[in-house]
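Example 3.2
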Amino acid sequence: MAKLTKQQAKRHQEACDLLSKDVLTEDEKFFVIANWQESASHINTVAGAFFTPYELARDFAIETFAGRVIDLCAGIGILSFAASMMHRWSETPTSFTCVEINPDYVAVGKKLLPEATWIEASVFDVLDMGLGHFDIAISNPPFGQIKRPEGKGAPRYTGGDFEYHVIDIASHLASYGAFILPQLSSGFKYSGSQHYRRDTDGKAVKFQEKTGIYLGPSCGIDTACYLNDWKGVSPLCEVVCCDFEEKEAEAIPAPVPTVVEPVPAAKPTPAPVGQLNLFGDAA
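Structure, written as tokens:
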């Protein structure tokens, strides 16, 4: 558990007091999101759980759309809450299903987004629940090689990085996916850089080749703007978008050398008999 400053501890307690109410106002929900400290009673580094800064979640919501939404490793539901604010005036009905294994997080999430369906379960059990098909899957999953239940994993990905298990599982649940991943797992570099460039090797490339899931960029969200807004960490991330209905990942072609064939010199054509040459004489 992290040691909080006096101000943080005071505001965290105020957030806990608000959570004792049956119904929160919108302003109270924002106060809880800003001040409820997940590290007050949990060791975040063990679970790899760090909640998305709301400002980043608000930008992330641009990559979502109305419809059936499933939020995997939802935490207290910040991504879903921001998406619900984005699409609350949409003509298309939007429903949220939030999957989270930590019961304390679920309890807070139910106060922030009571209209969502909250499922207290491991992400590795979701495919066996018969939840049906979703329009979009969203997630800020725990980063890195987080311990998972023995014998549990994604359908295709067999490596150790938890975020790839989540994406593979999401691909069997939804038509589209949007995720917050550590930059080293995203397959490209954009945030904190002067230009966008794709990786040509590394674990993200291997994941794409194995699963056929292309890890695409966002519309231009630079997460480096929010490095100092996380609680307890400053991860350099990317917003990654996946069209799961695409059959194959985009190939990363190797450079092909261009071969220029030499053009043969033109042979002089003899002048016909009687044709004048350049000097006006008959040839």
